[in-house]
Amino acid sequence: MAADRESKLQLVHRHIRDFPDFPKKGILFRDICPILKDPAALKAVIDLFEEHVRKNHQHVELIIGLDARGFLFGPLLAQRLGVGFVLVRKKGKLPGSTVSVAYDLEYGKAEAEIQEDAVAPGQKVLLIDDLLATGGTLYAACELMKKQQAEVLGCMVVIELKELKGIDKLKSHSVFSLVQY
User: Is position 80 annotated as part of the catalytic site?
Assistant: First the structure.
């Protein structure tokens, strides 16, 4: 089992592509597009997330995906687990009544929102995204869940950029990452 897990992690790692100086000079962009293009690599990501959830969060009721790349992994995982999937979007992208929270970015401010009836008080949720960098977006999504009185069981990401210390912002939540740089 451990060897199978390790081979899946290696497959995922091999499918993350580096782009130096993108989107601007001095940034090393970690691209997940090769994972999405390769069915075996994508399956490995979902297998690893599923294994983690079944082992550590058996009572999860909803997977919460962050705009936009959390939408790529979240529904696949939710379907495997037999639970619902909810979108956290940028402000103004969802119809109907919404609940939002403002947060700071490195270059300004933003707002994240969900539909008002998407998460019920007390529901057990896991948040998913492709990347943990500075932690601002995941933290805002956790605050949004808190506002809805949901129980955040943890956060999951494909990639964690450790040097940016985003995990420090999420101290009160467990964070599971497949690949760390």
Answer: no
